[in-house]
Amino acid sequence: MTATKIFLYEELFSAAEKQLVESDTLSASVFRYKSGVCAVRIKNTLGELIILPYQGQQIWRASFCGKDLTMKTQFDEPENTREFLDTYGGFLLHCGATAMGNPSPEDTHPSHGEFPNFPYRDAYVELGENEKGSYIAVGGSGAYRKSFGLSYVANPKITLYENDSVFEASMTIENKSIHPLEYMYLCHINFRPEDGAKIICTAEKDSMKYFRDIPENYDPIREAALTDYMNRMDQDITIHETIDSSTQAYDPEIVFDMRYKADAEGRAHCMLKLPAGDGYYVSHRPEQLPHGIRWISRRGDEDAIGMLLPATAVHKGRIYAEQHNMIKVLAGGESITFDVRAGYLAKECVAAKEQQIASVMNN
Question: What is the band of 107 on the pLDDT scale with cuts at 50, 70, 90?
Answer without folding.
Answer: very high
